[in-house]
Write a structure and sequence with these properties.
The chain is of the alpha+beta class. The protein has two domains: 6-62 and 200-304, DD-peptidase/beta-lactamase superfamily (Beta-lactamase, 3-Layer(aba) Sandwich); 65-197, 3-Layer(aba) Sandwich (Beta-lactamase), CATH 3.40.710. It is 46% helix and 10% strand. It has helices at 6-16, 67-87, 101-105, 117-124, 132-147, 156-164, 167-179, 186-197, 203-214, 229-242, 248-254, 291-304, and strands at residues 41-46, 51-55, 61-62, 200-201, 259-261, 266-271, 275-280. It has a five-stranded antiparallel β-sheet. A hairpin with a 3-residue loop joins strand 6 (266-271) and strand 7. The chain binds glutamine (GLN). Glutamine (GLN) binds at residues 64-65, 97-98, 117, 162, 169, 197, 262-263, 288. Residues 64-65, 97-98, 117, 162, 169, 197, 262-263, 288 line the site of glutamine. Substrate binds at residues 65, 117, 162, 169, 193, 245. This is Glutaminase. It catalyses: L-glutamine + H2O = L-glutamate + NH4(+).
């Protein structure tokens, strides 16, 4: 079995750098389109807070769909499972993450799960607060506690770009509103959704987010149980079945721990009781997942024995 070290990760980065030429940096969203296809970085943190990194670790990128886990977390804490899963389902969806057709296909017109765009927008409509600003501040406060530092902010330029280029998401929100399947104020839900997509992270922050889940929903500093253990189980199961969209099956088989991706090319993973992992590689495949990042996670899983389905 391989021992985790900076040198090991450096070798992995060298070996997997050729994968950065596969896939494409998303061009439709200003700011994301400016990311460099050749960048590739990784951070792994264990429960003793030893941090191992390699590659481009100082790159700042927007959280994008990795934020869908954060919004789900807060909605579950605010309302509990029954109410949340009256609003969205928990089934995997075989289509692209921003598809609208599934809202028509489902008998009750609900989004399939909280990890696809429609589901995350519906989840945003549930989060408690008297205004979008207050809801967003609650999310930031929670996220800062989860990460154990204050050094995150919303990128105004990304937020403006999300709004400007957000017609597909608007269509999803207004469609759900029109059927009445999700009781939401479309503009408010979208505004919160755009904001949380625009939170700037570095790869270490992705690893810290994963570490929080790996640590049973407890903060690393102080061990505060911020997330109910039942909600942790639910979120990890949904990440496993839907976090990588219609590649979640392949991830379950080849990586074997809960992960969530975003179109900036970031992926975070939680290896229960062991590691939080963050990878960034802005070139993504047609399903919306970082090509290099996915390959690296597969390799790490094999080398370090991280697949939770593998017998001891
Ligand atoms: N901001 C993007 C959207 O709403 C996020 C999608 C993603 O990261 N998969 O479509």
């Amino acid at each position: 079995m391989v021992t985790l070290s900076n040198e090991y990760l450096k070798d992995i980065i060298t070996e997997y750098t050729p994968y950065t030429t596969q896939g494409e940096v998303v061009q439709s969203l200003p700011c994301v389109s400016e990311l460099n296809q050749n960048d590739i970085g990784i951070a792994v943190i264990d429960l003793d807070q030893n941090i191992y990194t390699a590659g481009t670790t100082d790159l700042s990128f927007s959280l994008q769909s990795a934020s869908k886990v954060v919004s789900l977390m807060i909605a579950l804490e605010d309302l509990g499972e029954e109410k949340v899963f009256q609003t969205v389902g928990m089934e995997p969806m075989g289509d692209f993450f921003n598809t609208i057709s599934h809202l028509e296909a489902d008998d009750v017109h609900r989004p399939f799960n909280p990890m696809v765009n429609a589901g995350a927008i519906a989840i945003c409509s549930l989060i408690k607060g008297s205004s979008v600003e207050e809801r967003f501040e609650r999310i930031m406060t929670m996220l800062k506690s989860v990460l154990g530092h204050d050094d995150i902010h919303m990128n105004e330029d990304v937020y403006k770009a999300e709004r400007r280029k957000g017609d597909r998401n608007r269509a999803l929100a207004y469609y759900m509103s029109s059927t009445g399947s999700v009781a939401l104020d479309p503009e408010e839900a979208l505004d919160l959704y755009f904001r949380i997509n625009s939170i700037q992270f570095q790869v270490r922050d992705l690893a810290l987010l994963g570490l929080f889940f790996a640590n049973g929903g407890k903060t690393i500093e102080g061990g505060e149980q911020l997330l109910h253990p039942d909600h942790l189980t639910t979120i990890e199961a949904i990440m496993m079945t839907s976090g990588m969209y219609n590649e979640s099956g392949r991830f379950a088989v080849n990586v074997g721990f809960p992960c969530k991706s975003g179109i900036s090319g970031g992926i975070f993973g939680a290896v229960p009781g062991r590691y939080g992992i963050g990878v960034i590689g802005p070139a993504i495949n047609p399903k919306g997942n970082s090509v290099a990042g996915s390959k690296i996670l597969e390799r790490l899983s094999k080398d370090l024995g991280l697949n939770i389905f593998h017998p001891e």
